[in-house]
Design goal:
This protein is of the alpha+beta class and 184 residues long. It has four helices and six strands, in the order ββββαββααα. It has a five-stranded mixed β-barrel. The longest helix has 13 residues, at 150-162. It is globular, with a radius of gyration of 22 Å. The two termini are 27 Å apart. Pfam families: SSB. One of its GO terms (molecular function) is DNA binding. Keywords: DNA-binding. This is Single-stranded DNA-binding protein.
């Protein structure tokens, strides 16, 4: 608590890699390139300045959603905790800037995006086909299910079919399950 958050706007430089930790937590890692832009008054044009590269770490559901939604070259806005790490390897010292992401989103000043809410499914006894007479929670689950009118259902179907533009990528559960558990 009380940690300073940074916000970095840049482009995805490497393919996001989704892995599962030994404890079953999802983690996605990718590199983000942030290039400063400067106006050159003499040349009367914008030029690129220095590029900083950050390793972005997204954990749990954020990591799963990033892996399913983000591709190389896409403009992003990343907010998280900056971690500057120093290490030494074969007499050479290295410094890396990592961001433990709190939130990640597409930079909509440079394009459009289509949001899809992820619904986590947890199979209840009602979904397993449990008998409401013998399992009270199955009866309660059936009573508490939201009911949609025919008009509401038709509206949702029309909205889903009328969406245009680029379709977001969806991560395959089998792809995620086949990932190695080796460290990055």
């Amino acid at each position: 608590m009380g940690e300073t958050l940074v916000t970095v706007v840049g482009n995805v430089a490497t393919r996001p890699e989704l892995k599962m930790t030994a404890t079953g937590a999802a983690v996605t890692r990718f590199r983000l390139a942030a290039t400063e832009r400067r106006y050159d008054r003499a040349g009367e044009r914008w030029t690129d300045g220095h590029t900083n590269f950050y390793t972005v770490w997204a954990w749990r559901s954020l990591g799963e959603n990033v892996a399913a939604s983000v591709g190389v070259g896409e403009p992003l806005v990343v907010q998280g905790r900056l971690r500057v790490r120093e290490r030494e390897d074969r007499g050479q010292s290295y410094v890396s800037a990592d961001i433990d992401a709190v939130t990640v989103g597409h930079d909509l000043s440079r394009g459009t995006s289509a949001f899809r809410r992820v619904v986590k499914s947890r199979q209840s006894s009602a979904e397993r086909g449990a008998d409401p007479a013998t399992e009270p929670e199955a009866a309660e689950a059936k009573r508490s299910e939201p009911q949609q009118s025919g008009a509401e259902q038709a509206h949702l179907e029309r909205a889903e079919t009328s969406k245009g533009g680029a379709q977001p990528r969806e991560a395959s559960q089998t792809d995620a399950a086949q990932l190695e558990l080796a460290p990055f």
